Amino acid sequence: MTIRVLVADDHGVLRSGLRALIGGQPDMDVVGEASNRLEAESAVAETTPDVVIMDLSMPGGGIEAIRSVSKRTPHTRVLVLSAHEEAGYVRAAVAAGATGYVVKTAVDLELLAAIRAVAGGRTFMDLSLEPGVAQDNLFASPTRTAKSAEELDLLTGREREVLELVAEGYTNREVARDLGLSVKSVETYRARLMEKLGLCSRAELVRFALEYGVLRPGKVAR
Fold first, then answer.
1. Residue 55 contacts residue 20 (beta carbons within 8 Å)
2. What would the pLDDT profile of 106-159 be if each residue is shown by its tens digit?
3. Which residues pair with 100 in a beta bridge?
4. Of these four, 79, 97, 159, 202, which has the most CB atoms within 10 Å of its CB?
5. From CA 212, how far away is CA 10, in angstroms rounded?
6. Which fold has domain 142-219?
7. Residue 146, phi then psi, degrees to nearest 5
8. How far is the C-alpha of 215 from the C-alpha of 132, rounded, in Å?
9. 201: which DSSP letter?
10. pLDDT (0 to 100) of residue 79
C-alpha cells in the first residue's frame, strides 16, 4: 500500500527537498503541499492524506493546524517536523493531536522511518530531542495502553526478555550470555519479536519499549 503524504511548511526549498526524498520511496507518494495553516487545512480536506508532515512555525500556527486536522480528518496522522527541540513544543504538539515528532536536523532515514511508523498506526519520537523528552511517554493514553497490552501479548516470555535487553543496549552476544542462550537463538528471538511488533530497527524498538513501559528510561541505550 502506498503512503499518501502531504507536506506543510512555509519554506519552499524544504518542501521541494521533502517531495524529492519522499517521492523517491517505492511505498510513498506526495499528494500535496501547503505553506500556511489555511492551505494545510484545505489541502488535507481535499486530498485526505495518510500522513501530514507539519511545521510548527508556519504562518497561521502549526499547533492550531494540527488541532484542526486531527479533529476534521481523524484518519490523517500528523507528523511534526520542527526546528524546536524543547519539551514544551513537543508536549503542545502531542496535546493537539500529533502522533510523531522529528527535528529538522534528523537524517533522511529517521524521517522516512517516522512516516512509516505513524502511517502504520504507531507513534514516533525523535530520540535526539531534549534529554528526557523522548522518555516521558507523552503519547500514553487509555487507548494506547490497551493497544500496547495486545501487542505485548503477542510476545512470548523469552521474546520480552530479549526485547528489554536489546532496548537497553545489549548486543546479541551479551543477551545470549545473560539469558544462557546461543547467539543464533537470540538472533531468532529478536527477528521474531520485531516482525510481530512491526519494527524495522533498534531505534524503533527502543521507542516502542519506552512508549509502552517495557523499558525504564534510566536504562536506555547504555
1. no
2. 888 889 999 998 998 888 887 766 555 554 555 554 444 444 556 677 889 899
3. 79, 124
4. 79
5. 34
6. Arc Repressor Mutant, subunit A (1.10.10)
7. -65, -40
8. 14
9. S
10. 96
> Confidence class of residue 45 from pLDDT cuts 50, 70 and 90?
very high
User: Where in the chain are the domains?
Assistant: 3-135, 142-219
Q: Report H helices in 73-201.
A: 87-96, 108-119, 142-152, 157-168, 172-179, 183-197
pLDDT of residue 203: 72
DSSP, collapsed to helix, strand or coil, labels residue 62 as helix
Residue 37 confidence (pLDDT): 93
Give the domain 3-135 fold.
Rossmann fold (3.40.50)
The grid coordinates of residue 129 equal 530531542
Distance CA 116, CA 177 (A): 34
Handedness of CA 132, 138, 139, 140 (dihedral sign): positive
> How far from 197 is each of 69, 124, 127, CA to CA, in Å?
28, 14, 19
Nearest C-alpha neighbor of 69 from the set 57, 82, 59, 79? 79
C-alpha to C-alpha distance for 46 and 42, rounded to whole angstroms: 6
Q: Which residue shows C-alpha cell 502549526?
A: 62
- Residue 13 confidence (pLDDT): 94
- For residue 134, the 8-state DSSP code is G
Length of the chain, please? 222
Alpha carbon distance 191, 203 (integer Å): 14
